[in-house]
Design a protein that fits this description.
Layout: E1 2-8, H1 16-28, E2 34-40, H2 52-55, E3 59-60, E4 66-67, H3 70-78, E5 87-89, H4 90-103, H5 113-128, E6 142-147, H6 157-170, E7 175-182, H7 195-206, E8 213-218, H8 224-234, E9 241-245, H9 253-259, H10 262-269, H11 282-293, E10 297-304, H12 314-326, E11 330-337, H13 343-348, H14 350-361, E12 365-368, H15 377-389, E13 394-397, H16 399-411, E14 418-420, E15 429-434, E16 448-456, H17 462-466, E17 472-479, E18 481-483, H18 488-493, E19 497-501, E20 508-512, E21 519-522, H19 537-547, H20 552-562
Parallel strand pairs: 1-6, 1-7, 2-5, 2-6, 7-8, 8-9, 10-11, 10-12, 12-13, 13-21, 14-15
Antiparallel strand pairs: 3-4, 15-18, 16-17, 16-19, 19-20, 20-21
């Protein structure tokens, strides 16, 4: 097994995840099989209980793992299916060590960070790197390991030490260290400054690791004298100083690496030149250029709770991008805080209220994504009502589906107190209930998580056609509330159709509104399985409806391209 470790310095948020993913893409383009591991030094066991404002979206895997959003980047870039074990946290490591200590596995020894914690980290990495993630048999050729945070953080120290020991044990031909750092430009001077990177590399070397490559983030391409200075003071050859400057879209990053011959240098470092093929990134080049050349855009109203941090909906944004490109449009997302649409906002913040409604009315389609808690729910209900009554294409995901049920019950069935048990447990009109198998005392890993099968109830529904007339679909879930099965009959008599159910037939998964151009709610999260060049079916349906891709020629074109029947 060959290991490529990616660390970061100076500041967080430099794009280590995209860099690590892009390195994987370039190596995969050389004919190698690649897997990925993300190390998060926080004490949480997983990302499941963290606020989106705290750490961005929680990405859900097929096996139900609630993980860091960077694993979403890995899956999208590398087209692999990862497991919960591909995300290592301090909480998981300490939990496993303490469980062994309680069982007496350490034979009465004093359990310490070194060697017990560091050994657990190494064992975890070596074990997970052997697990195939691309649907083929046998382990991958290369494992890309991203260490979260920045070098020098207290919580990262055991992982740095474990990586140092791993480097020593596997040998220099099997380990490559890439350090991502920032090259700022001070506004007054206008000079590219190398000192922050010098200090970051010095810190890393003091901990026993010397980077083989520097991946330098900057607004503009690095000057040659900047590279010479970095090489001199960071002990890295000029040829191994990679510049990842700002680009129009992140699909250019693998191309940037290729243009700098990063793949050749990395292959040489890990003694893989003889087994690798000539790099082939033609598909990525077409993808990046196609996006750059798009001129028309489609306005999408994203009505959510966490719009203050767009990373909270990262996979939704990517799924919209994939679908829009498939229809030859650029996505123009109008972020609307759901609470700004509420009547109370008209009194407290009239300008925000007016702007929110103007934005909603100017959009070609409406999307209400997932979320938890009652903040902004009234605004989401108003957005769903607007889309339903005005024939505006609508897609509700998880909470967004439940919102559409509540709105329909209130507006069409005239059940004024219709609500979810999450928002009003005492209401007599419970149309959304807490799932019987859920836990009300523990929050972590107690939801309905991971890939679950949805059976289509009728072949003539819009969603089934989008899924290539399939009888079922496997999508990823993350919820603890569901549509009350006792009110399903009443809702369907009034015109709402539940066209997708779970294997028991009692849990509602997909709803549609006949006669509407596109009004779909899904209990699952289709965004998690959307890929570049292979867009998620519900998102593709939303964008097709919003852009008028409904004629026969468009249907034939998209069918040939993606395998969908539309």
């Amino acid at each position: 097994m060959k290991y490529v470790s990616v660390t970061g310095g100076v500041v967080s948020g430099l794009g280590k995840g995209v860099t690590a993913s892009s390195i994987g893409v370039v190596l995969k383009a050389c004919g190698l099989r690649v897997t990925s591991i993300k190390i998060d030094p926080y004490l949480n066991t997983d990302a499941g209980t963290m606020s989106p404002f705290e750490h961005g979206e929680v990405f859900v895997l097929d096996d139900g793992g609630e993980v860091d959003l960077d694993l979403g980047n890995y899956e999208r870039f590398l087209d692999v299916t990862l497991t919960r074990d591909n995300n290592i946290t301090t909480g998981k490591i300490y939990q496993s060590v303490l469980e062994k200590e309680r069982k007496g596995d350490y034979l009465g020894k004093t359990v310490q960070v070194v060697p017990h914690i560091t050994d657990a980290i190494k064992d975890w990495i070596e074990s997970v790197s052997q697990t195939p993630v691309d649907g083929k048999e046998g382990p991958a050729d290369v494992c890309v390991i991203e260490l979260g945070g920045t070098v020098g953080d207290i919580e990262s120290m055991p992982f740095i030490e474990a990586l140092r020991q791993l480097y020593f044990s596997v040998g220099q031909d099997n380990f490559c260290l890439i350090h991502v750092s920032l090259i700022p430009v001070l506004g007054v001077v206008g000079e590219q400054k190398t000192k922050p990177t010098q200090h970051s590399v010095r810190e890393l070397r003091a901990l026993g690791l010397t980077p083989h490559f520097l991946a330098c983030r900057s607004a503009q391409p690095l000057l040659e004298n900047t590279k010479q200075k970095l090489s001199q003071f960071c002990h890295v050859p000029v040829a191994n100083i990679l510049n990842i400057h700002d680009v129009p879209n992140i699909w250019h990053i693998p191309l940037l690496l290729q243009n700098q011959n990063a793949h050749d240098a990395i292959l040489k470092q890990m003694d893989l030149v003889r087994v690798a093929k000539h790099v082939d990134l033609r598909e990525w080049t077409r993808r990046a250029e196609t996006f750059d050349n798009l001129t028309e855009s489609v306005r999408i109203a994203m009505v959510g709770k966490y719009v203050g941090l767009t990373d909270s909906y990262l996979s939704v944004v990517k799924a919209l991008l994939h679908a829009c490109i498939a229809c030859s449009f650029k996505p123009s997302i109008d972020w609307i805080a759901a609470s700004d649409l509420e009547d109370d906002s008209a009194q407290s913040t009239p300008e925000a209220y007016a702007t929110a409604w103007k934005t909603l009315r100017g959009a070609a389609c409406v999307l209400v994504p997932g979320g938890f808690g009652d903040r902004g729910v009234k605004g989401m209900i108003l957005a769903a009502k607007y889309a339903r009554e005005n024939n505006v294409p609508y897609l509700g995901i998880c909470l967004g589906m439940q919102i559409s049920v509540i709105e329909f019950a209130r507006s069409v069935l005239h059940l004024e107190k219709a609500n979810s048990e999450e928002f009003d447990p005492q209401t007599p009109g419970l149309v959304v209930i807490f799932m019987p198998e859920g836990s009300k005392t523990h929050m972590g890993s107690t939801m309905r998580l991971g890939s679950r099968r949805t059976l289509f109830q009728t072949p003539d529904c819009t969603t089934s056609k989008l899924y290539n007339n399939s009888k079922y679909v496997d999508e990823r879930h993350r919820h603890r509330y569901e549509v009350n099965p006792e009110v399903v009959g009443t809702l369907e008599e009034a015109g709402l159709r539940f066209v997708g159910r779970d294997e028991s037939g009692k849990r509602m998964e997909i709803l549609e509104l006949p006669g509407h151009p596109f009004y779909v709610g899904v209990q699952f999260h289709p965004e998690y399985k959307s890929r570049p060049g292979r867009p998620s079916a519900p998102f593709l349906g939303l964008i097709m409806a919003a852009t008028g891709h409904t004629n026969k020629s468009d249907s034939i074109l998209l069918t040939r391209k993606f395998g969908f029947v539309v």
